[in-house]
Amino acid sequence: MTLEKRQPIPVIEAIQRCVKEQIRLPKTRVDLYEADGYILAEDIVATYDIPRFNKSPYDGFAIRSQDTVGASGTNRIAFKVIDHIGAGSISEATLGEGEAVRIMTGAEMPQGADAVVMLEQTVQTDEGFTLRKPFTPHENVALKGEETTTGDIVLKQGQRINAGGIAVLATFGYRHVPVFTKPSVAIIATGSELLDVEDELEPGKIRNSNGPMIHALLRAENISSYVYKIQQDDFESSLDAVRQAVQKHDIVITTGGVSVGDFDYLPDIYRALNATVLFNKVAMRPGSVTTVAVTEDTYLFGLSGNPSACYTGFELFVKPSIYRMMGATHYYPAMVNATLMEDFKKPNPFTRFVRATATLNGKEATVKPSGFNKSGAVVAIAHSNAIMVLPSGTRGYITGQRVEALLTATDYYQQDLYV
Ligand code: AMP
Ligand code: MG
Fold first, then answer.
1. Residue 164 has pLDDT above 70, yes or no
2. Cβ–Cβ < 8 Å for 19, 294
3. What is d(CA 263, CA 269) in angstroms, rounded to the nearest whole number?
4. Which atom of ligand 1 is nearest to the CA of 211?
């Protein structure tokens, strides 16, 4: 038996090969209340001006600015209130000299009015109020079209819809939103040592933690996945499972079995499926054996079984591919330059990815390993919000050095209030 010779490629190159694949998911429409997290499939164009009419941004009085000329503390000018409107109501009145309409926030400016006096700036009288300062035209008025005008592109195809996007879509009456479909994803954990979460431990066995972890990573992106039953290290049955999954899903994520061990069958499975292997060796630690292949418009991500390698492989390769196939214009991970707070002396033959805690609390960003960090480690993943990227070819890194870190957390809450 000859050992297959694998050629390592740089991580950047591996990521590029993943996102260069032209696998695209179809457009669809989803309910506005379900649309957050999707990628928008069309530009959204303003079909009317916002604001749609000149309106009051305050509770106060709509007036004619020309009537305030010369107003001062010793020359208070009196106004007569001729109408009273709240948001959603229109005044029938047209203002004449010295007249005002009591107006609430959001109400359309009455005819003739071009400024708003805030309630706090007035002194009440029997007929209305007096004021003590002159107003300029449009003072305290939210002008028609000041935010967007008809025809403006307010949301771009390829952007991820966040809560603000939902608000814009609601503004323009999109009960149903044009989006790209989310991928259907299968998760198949492979390994004869694996037990399910509810199983009693047995000698030589461990519980499958990668499967639930990948499921959670997908959920964090609002993507649901199908968890297949654990596969023994057996070529025929594993091939069957992967083959079936390829028929049904856009992405098949396997964990384990991708190395060159006697019971690692994923390379044979890719061959049997006639899949195009994009790479099967990456110049990175952990997870150098991570393999990505494509067949029948389905991505096959062969993640290493080592939990930290599995996690890192998801962040580096799966996530960008998902957003790319969903039509996103932004699909690369966010990186931050941070000060290393702990020595990391291990030399790096390959670029090393270390589960890390980054602190991004206003001052200078800092980063340090989030715990015991061998590739088999699980606990450090749980305490991480970043992955430190330590390039190869050095004798290690020391406290105070600047390093890059990839941000992985979906929330950025801090333990301490920033002051
Ligand atoms: P493999 O990639 O199959 O060579 O597995 C590498 C290491 O990761 C071995 O120590 C496995 O026991 C462990 N491992 C594989 N799959 C899983 C899994 N689903 N959950 C936790 N550990 C795993
Ligand atoms: Mg294995």
1. yes
2. no
3. 12
4. 19
Dist. CA 355 → ligand 2 center (Å): 22
Beta pairing, strands 185-189 & 251-255: parallel
Is the pTM for the entire model greater than 0.85? yes
| Cβ proximity of 87 and 107 under 8 Å | yes
For the chain, percent of residues with pLDDT exceeding 70? 99
Closest ligand, as measured to the CA of 232: 2
List the domains of the chain with CATH numbers: 11-25+182-326 (3.40.980.10), 30-50+147-180 (3.90.105.10), 55-131 (2.170.190.11), 335-407 (2.40.340.10)
**Dist CA 81 CA 95 (whole Å):** 10
Share of the chain above pLDDT 90, in %: 91
Question: Taking a C-beta distance cutoff of 8 angstroms, is the pair 381, 307 a contact?
Answer: yes
The residue to mutate among 229, 254, 255, having the most atoms of ligand 1 within 8 angstroms of its beta carbon, is: 255
Q: How far apart are CA 34 and CA 64, in angstroms?
A: 46
Ligand 1: centre distance to CA 307 (Å): 7
Distance 191 CA to ligand 1 centre (A): 7
- Is the CB–ligand 1 distance for residue 260 below 6 Å? no
Among the bound ligands, the one closest to the CA of 263: 2
Ligand 1 within 6 A of CB of 210: yes
pLDDT, mean of residues 258-284: 96
Residue 4 pLDDT grade (very low, low, confident, very high; cuts 50, 70, 90): low
- Preceding amide of 51 cis, omega within 30: yes
Q: What is the pLDDT of residues 182-225, one digit of tens each?
A: 999 999 999 999 999 999 999 999 999 999 999 999 999 999 99
- Cα angle 213, 319, 401 (rounded to 5 degrees) comes to 90
The verdict on the CB of residue 164 being under 6 Å from ligand 1 is no
